[in-house]
Amino acid sequence: MQLRLLILAAIVAASVVTSAYALTSDEIKAKLAAAGYSQIRELPSGKIKTFLAVKDGRERSIVVDSNGHINEFQ
Description:
The protein is α+β, with helices and mostly antiparallel strands. It contains two helices and four strands; from the N terminus they run H-H-E-E-E-E.
């Protein structure tokens, strides 16, 4: 029984830490702007943050993961 409680406590603690480090939409937009993107628009999606933005005169689709890594698709 104690082992189950310990495992449950570890899972709850991990989920709290994970959500504490998730970036907000405003933080992501600031990060994209700092990376040279403009006209940044968030697209409605589930848990994955998806954006459209312009860089070097071309519109690009961007996915930002929970760690703040920018993945660009043309």
